[in-house]
Structure formats: structure tokens, C-alpha cells
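User: Some background: our group keeps a shared notebook of sequences we're curious about, and every so often someone picks one and asks for a predicted structure to add to the entry. Today it's my turn. The entry only has the sequence so far, pasted here. Could you supply the structure so I can complete it?
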Amino acid sequence: MRIDDSDTFRNVSGATESILDTLHIYGLYWDGPVLYQTDNQQIYQRIVKQLINQDLVYPCSCTRKALSTNKTAVYPGFCLKSKVDKDLPHALRIKSKDLEIGFDDEMQGHQTHSLVQQHGDFIVKRKDNIIAYQLAVVIDDSIQNISHVIRGFDLLDSTPKQIFLQQILGYSTPKYCHIPVIVDPQGHKLSKQTFAQAISTKTPEKTLFLLLELLAQKPPVLLKNASVKDLICWAIDNWNSLHLKNKRAINREFY
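Assistant: Of course. Here's the predicted structure to add to the notebook entry:
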């Protein structure tokens, strides 16, 4: 279990306890103690210093306003060859290489990304000194010896960047599986950004059964009255990923 709390500005008081309590209610448990990203700050800083010493990153003082004039989402390298005053707030960008990153996703099939053309020199340390998600999660995965990463399709574009970081840091690459996300009738992923309602802890059995239906696992009608434990056990024994192959989203209103 890992709590991604390094982005301290977005942390909400009591949210961690609520997440852990909800997982318990839904019959989901973890091995070992909970790992908090904020406990790994010294490790992150050591890795960043290593990247600086190896000349693999460079400072970037570009503002959002300056970048808004760029016609593409890929950073054009404004600060790569310019002299940035390191005493002023600046981010750190990784020096991308002109290569293709390929991987076999267990749900979405083979993926190939051009690192420079599709991702460019992405940020690994923000102006506010917070380690960016892409670098933090790669370090965390290595610390926890993560062998398989199962997450939503919306994070698939992060994977090539993370694999690149794993390669330059000498880390092993986990196996990846990006499952379709559940979206609302307008096609928006259910999230706090779209003001989706929080998951109910009052009727976990009902919610688990609905999720199994949404994920095309075809649970038998008899399971509608099953306990959380029995639903989880059935899902583990009968899970069939073929029903979700190459699907990016499941478009159905969530109740």
C-alpha cells in the first residue's frame, strides 16, 4: 500500500484515513506497512542530485503563460541551451532521447511511443521543489519491488516516460496493464475533478456487484446478495481480462 502524498498542496486532511477505511470496508487489504511518499523525500533528492551530476536534467524557468504560446503540448526546449538563473525558482526537465519506447500492455496490446516527439523533455522536479509524479512513482516502484502495475487507461501515456526513467536509473521495468476507466454519460472519467460522487461505504456489496457488471465480468445473479468477502473471492477466481481487451473506457452512468 502506497499513499501518493508528495504533492502537499493537494493533500486534504483526513483523506488518507478515509481511503484506508474504505478499502477495509470493501474487503481489500495489503501486505506490510503503508508507504508514504513524504517519507521518501531524502531518497528522491539523492536521485535528483544523481541526475544533475550526470547532466541528464536541466533547469527550466518557463512560466505557464510562456508555454501557452506553444502550439503543441510537447515542451519545445526553450531552456535547454539558455542560461537559467539557478538562484531563482526553476523546474528540472529530463533530457529526452530520440528513441522509441515500446512495451506490451496486458490489456491494450503492444504500445510504441516516440519519446521526443510525443513527450519531449518532461519535468521531474517542479518549481515548488516537489518531485514530479513521473519520477516519484518510478523510485517508489523500485523501492517496493513492484512487479506488476495495474491502473487506468488514462495513465497509459505516463508509462513510456516512466520506462525511460527506469532505463536511465538502472531499474527493472514492471509488467503493465491499463484497464478501461468508467466514465459518465458525457465521457468524463469519474474523479474529483469532474465532481463525481464519492464511493459509498454503506452498501459495499451492491457497489462491488455493479463494478463487476461494468467491468464485463458477468457475475451470476445469486451474487447480488453475497457478502463482500464472497464477491471478492468470486472475482479473483473468475476474472477474465478478455472481456476488456483493447477497451479504453466504459461509458455508463454510475449509481
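Suggested note for the entry: Residues 71 and 93 are 19 Å apart (CA to CA). Residues 41-53 form the longest helix (13 residues).
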